[in-house]
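Record type: ASSEMBLY
Status: queued
Input:
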Amino acid sequence: EVQLVESGGGLVQPGGSLRLSCAASGFIFSHYEMNWVRQAPGKGLEWISYISRSAGTIYYADSVQGRFTISRDNAKNSLFLQMSSLRAEDTAVYYCARTSIDMVRGYFDLWGRGTLLTVSS
Amino acid sequence: EIVMTQSPATLSVSPGERATLSCRASQTISSTVAWYQQKPGQAPRLLIYGASTRATGIPARFSGSGSGTEFTLTISSLQSEDFAVYYCQQYNNSPPLTFGGGTKVEIK
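Status: finished
Output:
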């Protein structure tokens, strides 16, 4: 089955760190660009980071630049998001999302179910 | 950054009726728009890409149109499973990739 499964969310204190993971299966992971998209409670979708197939190109939203680091391990079919200096406003469901293979930095044709990060003291 | 503005924020529609959702881009973006459906507690699902191409497995009652700055998602005859939140997204000019604020389609 083609799927993405996120893990690693939880409760973290402000200023803390956490690492999210996304396990891919059912497709050739190394052929696809990947992203993290988040959704604060009751709010809309916010793209936060992109990584190219070989990890040679990486982008971040201004809201997480300098605090979050995206990475991937193609041998293990995994995507990661290392988060530090966490703030209350980072509280959200974090989705791993696959970019469609037919366009660079395009739309998202596969999403995971998300993992919830709560930043609170 | 390209800002995507969706309207209305909430759309009340009776089952079987037509729903028309709008999305406006702050600058021209050709046809590089995608639409997603999100139900409570679920991940978004791709409906439309390239402004008008249905994704795999999406019923024909969903259609997209538009180019430039004005885009529309139409659901021709609403089914019970279509009541959800819909988001547009531009991918013409990135980063950042940007989403609209969403339109909630609710039962009238």
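Annotation: The longest strand of chain B covers residues 19-25.
Annotation: Chain B has no helices and eleven strands.
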